Each structure stands twice: as structure tokens, then as C-alpha cells.
From TrEMBL:
Boundaries of every Protein kinase domain copy: 503-777
Protein name as catalogued: Receptor-like serine/threonine-protein kinase
CDD domains, alphabetized: B_lectin, PAN_AP_plant, STKc_IRAK
Transmembrane spans: 446-470
Source species of the chain: Triticum aestivum (Wheat)
Length: 803
């Protein structure tokens, strides 16, 4: 919460207040742009002027999206040289024909386009594409001396070229901002592969090792990012000729506002402005996982894609620069709280090791591998060198790290995949282990400790008694752990109780778009899952009302809400705990293949749960976020849909929250992205995508398929094709099942999934229909090819029409 509040109060950019209302798209020597004015492109989509960021009165000249109320710069002229006072400044044409920012009081030029201009009679025009061009005032506009498109900052606008001019050597590349409010040169850049391959790379600015490759252009899309052409309204071009080599895109639908940029934290993002939510909604992000950006969290941190925020200091460290950190610039990382003990040389360091389970070793990191027979010996080796900061001992091999620890990632430790990641032993000063110190003081203290414990236990007992008495007196409607129930049997917990039940939120089960989930236990051995919401900022009354309306929803395939807590700004939800965790772990991470029968039952159960949400309860609930992570499995592997009330609970915040996850658009229906009102059919679309994953046992991806000659075809498209060809579906089913599949059920499931992912929501079945079909009570015909997905796959359209 504090982080978000901070961002929303401080992260505001202001354009200078217009001094006069007349707007134009042209600057000439006779008609300069003065401090507060703005230039607006002929179509009204872009504006140019001075804007201010943060609270330090830093002014910049730049171009922003004029139709977006939230000032979003797309180009900055002076990113590394902010101007402190724009009072007497103007943008004009200087005597030599260049475009300049001029200080009228001192007649000094602050910056200039410095182009080789062959005439002094020039004008600058802000074109409809958002390109500011300096041209001969009297000749045709193709006669350009300078243009802002040649010097992009972090944003790649439609119609601009990203790449090289082979004749002049000009390299148009994107460089991220320093932080959310500072457009200065940041830490990451995106450019055409300097080695000559037709692909783009994302690289830290001061390194030559990319952390992401687009894959080579194949005529339609970059090989490793097929989803980029998921662009339902974008047209991509790659040009490589004698003069130049560049990538460009245009919009089919000019009314869409798309923002392609390299984010502060190193991801290349494509966002779209959604009028309905008055916000930028992410469509794609590359690399998909934030933690794939090399060392994004800085030194001595651990990056966790399943947590929000994903960067956290390692134990024993604190954020070096909280101000930068909160503005998304995490590159300075964390600082050690207590220095290591190196005073007495190699043998007598008092430092100790803190185990960090399930971490992934950095990709290209040099560490030494001294010979050691045991973990203990490895630890001694590390203690023996003052610069050693961590060690691991895996499969009989000792590894030790020196200096700052960079690019460490947290894996999720689940029962089924305990082989994921390794345990890192982090060297910390003894002071960082407080409890152990107490026990070392020796026997003499034992009695003292015991008596203190007895005393505090007595005190606790007295307190508990007092509380119980007080509770009974005041007849509180909720609050105690197992007795008092509110309306509809929903318990209103107190924060302190949940803190206790979860042992101060110590055992994290997972995290996601809405917050983190912790395991807890009520007194009577019932385990619970406590979700701490990060984003709910609703009033207490409304929150309670929503919770009680969601609380009355009971269905065998929906996770049951036991209670909630609403104290101050804290919002927590308490659910029954599902011992088998979420479906994704079983489908994608587990070594044990889930049998076909179980898969079919899960598909059916999820469909029933959704049908109930959509049709059967009083006012229909749209889940909006169906994905394997939100399908939990109980002890007998029956599915329970989780997070089904989130859309209601979070209200307007929802789309923001949903999309702050990781820019995977994989489960999102096209109408969600295009901004028209969403209906229950968006859940049907997501369900179809999930069903395909249940069938294949893999994420719907372009990963080469080992089960036939279908390299690189998007799996959903492959399924539709197979169905249209009338061929067997066995090749589509998870080959780990080794053919142990009910082929009739598999064929039905494939058809259902394909109908669910049709472009037009009216073509998709309702969840009720899906249930009847899966139960075998209704027939289903062969589905047509989902055209949008097919367009993405770049395959010919030989199968685009059908029954
Ligand atoms: C900017 O400069 C003008 C005079 O050049 C002065 O009157 C004004 O107070 C200054 N503004 C700020 C914020 O310093
Ligand atoms: C513009 O010139 C005036 C007068 O010389 C000076 O006080 C002011 O600081 C200058 N402004 C900028 C932004 O350089
Ligand atoms: C500018 O345009 C005018 C009119 O077309 C032409 O006469 C003149 O030569 C041009 N100047 C340059 C430097 O291109
Ligand atoms: C480059 O990286 C090093 C650490 O690897 C860092 O100290 C330095 O500040 C970085 N330079 C820039 C310009 O980011
Ligand atoms: C896509 O862009 C290319 C090059 O600009 C153009 O030739 C083509 O007609 C465009 N296609 C569509 C569907 O807009
Ligand atoms: C280091 O050695 C000095 C004297 O040699 C001793 O007084 C001190 O306690 C030692 N410190 C530790 C942490 O062992
Ligand atoms: C400690 O390790 C570093 C890095 O491997 C090495 O350069 C240094 O010589 C070692 N120091 C001692 C005292 O062994």
C-alpha cells in the first residue's frame, strides 16, 4: 500500500499551463512556441511543449499523447539536461535555420537541433504521427533536415523506424528512463542486433550481454515473440536494403492509442490506453517475467516473479536508496546491515550462514568451486576468505561467491517440485541471528528464562481471559477465531488474530496480482489461506457489503470464503486451504503426469463453477482472471476456482491490478484489450485457453512440439487445424500420458476449447453449454478457425473457412 500511494501522489507530470488557447502544429521564426504554449498535431493525437516532472521543478521539452489525460511523454528533447526555469524560454527557428530552445532574456541558445540545414527559411511541424520535423518552409514535406523520430527516447511510435541508417550510421534505439519521473538516460536499451542478425536485443546500457532476444524476423514476426503480432490492429514491417535496416509498425485502427516503450525496469512493453479504465493497460511485455531482466533488483536482492513487488532485499540487507526504489529504479540494490567479521583473519570469523531455499543460480556469473567434502567444509572455506559472501553445496559440489550477489531469483518451492532451485547459504554477521545468541548465554540463564516464560504465559492467559470477558460483554459480532460469525456465516477477523493464525505471515503459499497468500491455522487444526490484498482501497462499508455478497456464494467448485479482515487500510480475505495448491503446478511443473481422467474432471469442475458464477447466483459474477494459477485443487484433486470475487471487490482498480501481473495476454480475450464492455464471454475465452493447456500439459506456446512436424505453430491454432482436417487428436494430447487417453473425451475437449476461443464473443458457447457438452448431454460441431490467433501464427489461410 505505501508504495502505491507514493507512486500515485508523486508520480505526476505536468505540462506547462497554456498561455493562450490558439493551437497550431507549426513553428517558424515569426511564430515561436513560448514557455507555456503547446503545439498540437493536425489530428490532435500528439502535443509538444514544456512539461515538468516530480517536485524538483525539472522542466523538459517533449512530445506527449495529447488524447491521454494522464501526461505520458513519448519523446523528450533534453532528457539528460533538465531546465530549472522556463519563464523566458521559447522554441523557435534560429538564424541558421535550426530548431532551438532560446532564452529571450539573455538571447542565449539552450539547445539546438544542430542539423546541417541548407536554407535559413525553415519551419518545424508536429506531424500527425507525432514526429517533429524541421523542413524547408516552401518545399514539400519530404525535404527534412532533422526529425525527432531519428532521436527516440524510450518510446517507439507507430510510423517511426527503429534501426540503422546504413549511409549516415545513425542508430535509432530506445533507452529506458532513469526512473518513473526522471527521463534521464536509464539502465536498459533496445536496439537492432549489432552483430547483423535481423533481431532486436534488450541489453543493460553498460554491458554487452543481452538478457533478451526477439528472435530473427521471419517475414511476419520475430521468431521468439509471436505474440507481438497478436496485435489485433498492428501491422509490422521489417526493411533491410542498401540504405537502411529498420523495424516499423503502423496501426490499422487509428483510434487506438498504443504505447511501445522500454520500461524503467528493463522490459519492453506494449500498453494500450483504455478509456473505460482511464489507464494504460499492458498488452505484451518482453521478457515476460520481470526477473528475466538482468540484475533488475540490483545487488544483494532476490527477485521473485510471484511476488508484488518482485524485488526484495536478502535477509540482513536494507534498501540502499528507498527514494529510487519507490520510483522503480532498483539498480542500486540493498546494503548490508551489519558488516561481516573479518577482523581476526581466516579462522575465527564469527559470521554465520542463513539458508535461502529454492533460489536460482544467476545465469552468467563467475564463482569459484573449491573442493569440499561437505556443506560444513564449504562453509569453512567461505568463512576463511573475507570477500566471500555466500556458498552453496549441491550434489557434492561446493560453490562460493565473492563480493556483491547479483541476479538471484526465487523459485516457488512446492512439494511437487522441490528440485526447483537450490539452497544458497548467505553469509551474515552473527548479530543478524538474534534468537541463537540468547540461547548461547549458558545454563545460568535458564532459570531466568523459564521464570520469565512462566510470567509472560501467565500474563498472556490473563489477557486472553480479559479479552474473552470483554468480548462476551460487548457481544461482538465477529472476531474470535471460531465462535463469532457475522452475517451469512462469514467471520470478521481482527488483524491481530490473523497475524497470530499465520505466525506473522511467515509461511507464504504464493502471491499474485492481488497480493500475497499465507498459510495459517485456526485453533482447531483447520488450515486456512489468508490473502492480504495489496490494492484494495475501498471504504470499509463497501468492502464488507461485497464480502458478504461473495460469502453467500457456495459451490463445490468455488473456493469458500471463511472470513475477512478490514481494519484501517488493511484488507484480508480468509479462505479454506487447498492442500494440492494450484493447477499450474501439476500441469507444468510436476514430475508426476496427471492422468487423463483427472484432467477431464477438472475441466468439467471448472466449467461448472464458472457456469454457477455466470448464471446461477443473484447477480452474475465475471471472474476476469481465469488461468491455471487461479484453479486450486482440494485433497481429492477436485478443482476450486479462486479469486472469483476479485473483480467486484476491487472495482475500478481491478483492471490495473489484473494487468500489473506479468504482461502475458495469453488468457485475455480480444474484446478485453480492445476496450469494449466485457461480458461473461471473456471468462469463456480464458477457459478455452486453460482447457487447451489441460489437454496438452503445456503452456499454450510456440515452443517446438516434439510430437510431430508442427514446429512453431501456436498450439491453439494447431488444435483448430487438426479438427478442421478431421485428423486424430491424439497428437495434441500431452504425450506424457503415453496414449492413456479417452480419445472421444479428448476430441470433445478440443472442440469445446476451440469454440471458446473464437474471436467474436457471440460465437463462443456459454459456460452452461460447455458443461452440458462435456457431460455428454449435448452435441458439438467442428469449430471454425479462430481467425485472430491464426493471423498471429502466420500460416496460410487455407483453413480459414469451415463448417
Ligand atoms: C523564473 O525566473 C523568473 C525571472 O526570470 C522569476 O520571476 C521566477 O520567479 C522564476 N521562477 C522560479 C520558479 O524560480
Ligand atoms: C535566461 O536568462 C536569464 C537572464 O540572463 C537568466 O537569469 C536565466 O537563468 C536564464 N534561464 C535559463 C533557463 O537559462
Ligand atoms: C526550398 O524550397 C524552395 C521552393 O521549393 C526552393 O526554391 C529552395 O531551393 C529550397 N531550398 C533548399 C535549400 O532546398
Ligand atoms: C555500470 O555497472 C556498474 C556495475 O556493474 C555500475 O557501478 C555503474 O554505475 C554502471 N554504469 C552505468 C552508467 O549505469
Ligand atoms: C502494412 O504495412 C505495409 C507497409 O507500410 C503496407 O504495405 C501494408 O498495406 C499494410 N497492411 C495493412 C493491412 O495495413
Ligand atoms: C579478535 O581478536 C582480538 C584480539 O586478538 C580479540 O580481542 C577479539 O575478541 C577477537 N574478535 C573476535 C570477534 O573474535
Ligand atoms: C579470497 O577470494 C578472492 C576471490 O576468489 C581471491 O582473489 C583472494 O585471493 C582470496 N583471499 C584469500 C586470503 O584467500
Amino acid at each position: 500500500m505505501p508504495l502505491l500511494l507514493f507512486v500515485f501522489t508523486v508520480f505526476t507530470l505536468h505540462a506547462a499551463a497554456p498561455a493562450n488557447s490558439a493551437t497550431t502544429d507549426t513553428i517558424s521564426a515569426a511564430q515561436p512556441l513560448v514557455g507555456g504554449d503547446k503545439l498540437v498535431s493536425g489530428n490532435g493525437r500528439y502535443a509538444l511543449g514544456f512539461f515538468e516532472t516530480g517536485s524538483d521543478s525539472n522542466w523538459y521539452m517533449g512530445i506527449w499523447f495529447n488524447t491521454v489525460p494522464k501526461l505520458t511523454p513519448a519523446w523528450v528533447a533534453n532528457r539528460d539536461d533538465p531546465i530549472k526555469n522556463i519563464t523566458s524560454l521559447e522554441l523557435t527557428i534560429s538564424g541558421d535555420g535550426n530548431l532551438v530552445i532560446l532564452n529571450r532574456s539573455s538571447s542565449s541558445i539552450i539547445c539546438s537541433s544542430q542539423a546541417r540545414v541548407t536554407t535559413t527559411d525553415t519551419i518545424a511541424v508536429l506531424l500527425n504521427t507525432g514526429n517533429l520535423v524541421l523542413q524547408n518552409s516552401s518545399s514539400n514535406p519530404s525535404d527534412v533536415f532533422w526529425q525527432s523520430f531519428d532521436y527516440p527516447t524510450d518510446t517507439f511510435l507507430p510510423g517511426a523506424k527503429l534501426g540503422y541508417d546504413k549511409i549516415t550510421g545513425l542508430n535509432r534505439r530506445l533507452v529506458s528512463w532513469k526512473n518513473l519521473i526522471n527521463p534521464a538516460t536509464g539502465a536498459y536499451h533496445e536496439e537492432l542486433d549489432p552483430s547483423g542478425l535481423n533481431q532486436f536485443l534488450l541489453t543493460p546500457l553498460n554491458s554487452s550481454t543481452p538478457y533478451w532476444y526477439s528472435g530473427v524476423w521471419n517475414g511476419q514476426y520475430f521468431a521468439l515473440m509471436p505474440e507481438m503480432s497478436n496485435g489485433y490492429f498492428m501491422n509490422f514491417t521489417f526493411v533491410d536494403n542498401d540504405q537502411e535496416k529498420y523495424f516499423m509498425y503502423t496501426l490499422h485502427d487509428e483510434t487506438k492509442v498504443i504505447r511501445n516503450y522500454v520500461d524503467v525496469s528493463g522490459q519492453a512493453k506494449t500498453n494500450m490506453w483504455l478509456e473505460s479504465s482511464q489507464n494504460w493497460v499492458p498488452m505484451f511485455a518482453q521478457p515476460k517475467a520481470q526477473c528475466d531482466v538482468y540484475a533488475v533488483c540490483g545487488p544483494s536482492t532476490i527477485c521473485d516473479d510471484n511476488a508484488l513487488p518482485s524485488c526484495n532485499c536478502m535477509k540482513g540487507f536494507t534498501v540502499r536508496s528507498p527514494k529510487d526504489w519507490e520510483l522503480d529504479d532498483r539498480t542500486s540494490g540493498c546494503l548490508r546491515n551489519t558488516p561481516l567479521d573479518c577482523s581476526n583473519g581466516s579462522t575465527s570469523s564469527t559470521d554465520r550462514f542463513y539458508p535461502m531455499p529454492c533460489v536460482r543460480l544467476p545465469q552468467n556469473d563467475d564463482h569459484s568451486k573449491p573442493a569440499a567434502a561437505s556443506s560444513g567444509e564449504c562453509a569453512q572455506i567461505c568463512l576463511g576468505n573475507c570477500s566471500c559472501t555466500a556458498y552453496s553445496f549441491v550434489k557434492g559440489e561446493c560453490s562460493v561467491w565473492h563480493g556483491e550477489l547479483l541476479d538471484w531469483r526465487q523459485h516457488q518451492c512446492s512439494d511437487s517440485s522441490s528440485t526447483n532451485g537450490e539452497t544458497l547459504y548467505l553469509r551474515l554477521a552473527a548479530k543478524e541471528f538474534p534468537s541463537q545468541q540468547a540461547s548461547r548465554r549458558g545454563k545460568t540463564n535458564v532459570i531466568l528464562i523459564i521464570s520469565a516464560t512462566v510470567a509472560s504465559l501467565g500474563l498472556l492467559a490473563a489477557l486472553v481471559l480479559l479479552i474473552i470477558i470483554w468480548r462476551n460483554r460487548t457481544k461482538l459480532s465477529g472476531g474470535t477465531l471460531k465462535i463469532a460469525k457475522g452475517v451469512n456465516g462469514i467471520i470478521a477477523f481482527r488483524y491481530a488474530d490473523l497475524q497470530r493464525a499465520t505466525k506473522s505471515f511467515s509461511e507464504k503459499l504464493g502471491g499474485g496480482s492481488f497480493g500475497s497468500v499465507f498459510k495459517g491455522s485456526l485453533g482447531d487444526s483447520a488450515t486456512i489461506a489468508v490473502k492480504r490484498l495489496d490494492h484494495a482501497n475501498q471504504g470499509e462499508k463497501q468492502f464488507r457489503a461485497e464480502v458478504s455478497s461473495i460469502g453467500i456464494i457456495h459451490h463445490i467448485n468455488l473456493v469458500r470464503l471463511i472470513g475477512f479482515c478490514c481494519e484501517g487500510s488493511r484488507r484480508l480475505l480468509v479462505y479454506e486451504h487447498m492442500p494440492n495448491r494450484s493447477l499450474d503446478l501439476h500441469l507444468f511443473q510436476s514430475n508426476a503426469t496427471m492422468p487423463w481422467h483427472a484432467r477431464y474432471q477438472i475441466a468439467l469442475g471448472v466449467a461448472r463453477g464458472l457456469a454457477y458464477l455466470h448464471d446461477s447466483c443473484q447477480d452474475c459474477i465475471i471472474h476476469c482472471d481465469i488461468k491455471p494459477e487461479n484453479i486450486l485443487l482440494d485433497a481429492s484433486f477436485a478443482p476450486r476456482i479462486a479469486d472469483f470475487g476479485m473483480a467486484k471487490l476491487l472495482g475500478r482498480d481491478f483492471s490495473r491490478v489484473l494487468t500489473t501481473v506479468r504482461g502475458t495476454a495469453g488468457y485475455l480475450a480480444p474484446e478485453w484489450i480492445s476496450g469494449v464492455a466485457v461480458t461473461t464471454k471473456i471468462d469463456v475465452y480464458s477457459y478455452g485457453m486453460v482447457l487447451l493447456e489441460i489437454i496438452s500439459g503445456r503452456r499454450n506456446s510456440w515452443a517446438p512440439c516434439s510430437c510431430g512436424g508442427d514446429h512453431g505453430v501456436y498450439f491453439p491454432v494447431n488444435v483448430a487445424q487438426k479438427l478442421l482436417e478431421g485428423s486424430d487428436v491424439w497428437s495434441l494430447v500431452d504425450h506424457m500420458l503415453h496414449g492413456d487417453v479417452n480419445l472421444d473425451e479428448a476430441a470433445t475437449a478440443c472442440k469445446v476449447a476451440c469454440w471458446c476461443i473464437q474471436d467474436d464473443e457471440f460465437d463462443r458457447p456459454t459456460m452452461g453449454e460447455v458443461v452440458r457438452i462435456l457431460e455428454g448431454l449435448a452435441e458439438i460441431s467442428v469449430p471454425p478457425m479462430p481467425r485472430l490467433l491464426q493471423a498471429m501464427s502466420g500460416r496460410g489461410s487455407s483453413h480459414s473457412t469451415c463448417s
